[in-house]
């Protein structure tokens, strides 16, 4: 087999492995090389999720984001989001990493961008949401036993302040309005918070605009060409 055919075959094998193992497409073959990252299911942090659950493992995503920043062949980042939330610390860490990437970046909320998925949705330079997607805004919650002491409550408050500050800093919504939506009663069954569909999320200035993959790619191409 000629050397160039061997290289092509090996490249195809690596791309297939990345797609199957990590759910990513490295360097799309459009007009510009875009890395496509998917955030699906539950965001998994230091503790493994139960078997049978679809997860996005933060230890898999972090090296990809570093590579996007460092690889000169990658010109932009597209993040596709359909998450139920998950580990708060891990989700916020990923959002901070995406926000710190210097190359053009865009997010698209497809099915859901709930809980800690909201900071991820607003972390890129431009955010999109399809009309049928939903975003659930609610306070930080904790499963399992917790200590009933003032320090525990203060920890929850500080974490919520970090999330609210990040969301307000990377979208058009104010911290006060985000907190109001987060603590609203009477909308979610047995819970406090607010569920926003695509149009409402844009109206609240949480997401920049309605749109799907083609809109996000068009925006990325335009930003890349503007920087050339």
Automatic annotation (TrEMBL):
Q: Which InterPro entries match?
A: ClpP/crotonase-like_dom_sf, ClpP/TepA
Q: A Pfam family matched by this chain, by name?
A: CLP_protease
What Gene Ontology molecular-function terms does this entry list?
peptidase activity
- Do the record's keywords include Protease? yes
Record keyword Membrane present? no
Query: What Gene3D superfamilies does its record include?
Result: 2-enoyl-CoA Hydratase, Chain A, domain 1 (3.90.226.10)
**Keywords for the protein's UniProt record, in alphabetical order:** Hydrolase, Protease
GO terms classed as biological process = proteolysis
* SUPFAM superfamilies referenced in this protein's UniProt entry, alphabetically: ClpP/crotonase
Q: What is this protein called?
A: ATP-dependent Clp protease proteolytic subunit
- Origin species, per record, is Faecalibacterium hominis
């Amino acid at each position: 087999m000629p050397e160039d055919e061997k290289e092509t075959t090996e490249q195809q094998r690596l791309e297939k492995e990345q797609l199957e193992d990590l759910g990513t497409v490295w360097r799309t073959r459009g007009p510009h090389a875009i890395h496509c990252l998917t955030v699906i299911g539950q965001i998994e942090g230091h503790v493994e999720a139960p078997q049978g659950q679809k997860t996005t493992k933060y230890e898999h995503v972090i090296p990809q984001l570093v590579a996007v920043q460092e690889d000169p062949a990658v010109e932009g980042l597209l993040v596709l989001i359909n998450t139920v939330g998950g580990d708060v610390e891990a989700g916020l860490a990923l959002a901070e990493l995406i926000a710190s990437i210097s190359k053009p970046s865009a997010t698209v909320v497809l099915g859901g961008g709930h809980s800690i998925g909201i900071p991820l949705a607003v972390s890129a330079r431009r955010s999109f949401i399809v009309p049928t997607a939903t975003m659930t805004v609610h306070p930080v919650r904790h499963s399992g036993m917790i200590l009933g002491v003032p320090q525990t409550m203060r920890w929850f408050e500080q974490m919520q302040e970090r999330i609210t500050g990040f969301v307000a800093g990377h979208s058009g919504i104010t911290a006060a309005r985000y907190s109001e939506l987060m603590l609203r009663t009477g909308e979610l069954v047995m819970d406090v918070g607010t569920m926003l569909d695509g149009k409402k999320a844009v109206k609240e200035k949480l997401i920049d605009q309605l749109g799907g993959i083609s809109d996000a790619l068009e925006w990325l191409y335009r930003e890349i060409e503007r920087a050339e």
